[in-house]
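Q&A log
Question type: sequence-to-structure
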Amino acid sequence: MNRSNPLVWLDIPVLDLDRAIGFYQPVLDWVLVDQRPQADMAVFRHSKGEVAVALILQTSTPGGLGPLPYLNCHGRLEQALARVEPYGGSIEQPLHPLTPFGFRAVIRDSEGNRVALHSMAVN
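Response status: OK
Response body:
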């Protein structure tokens, strides 16, 4: 993954994965790949290196969380994370692996927006 695009992934939280697939697939005329049982999600078909979008099964109402954009911090995730709090943000989920999809941390920016910082490598 390179730094050519700031957005690398987008989670759309859903309460009923089958219902959401049944909605998004015909509305957008896009193929979704059901990842169950490995993961409770369905991914919009995409090519390697393209921005990916996934429907992610949640146990709480998605309305309060909304979509979660993954922003590209390629090769500098720890440095970016170290700057979150000094610049007025907060860390909701510390750095953790998304095996085999790299690493992320979920933060709130200075305006209260939820954002995932992502990199295929920690540094």
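Response note: The chain has two domains: 1-67, 73-123.
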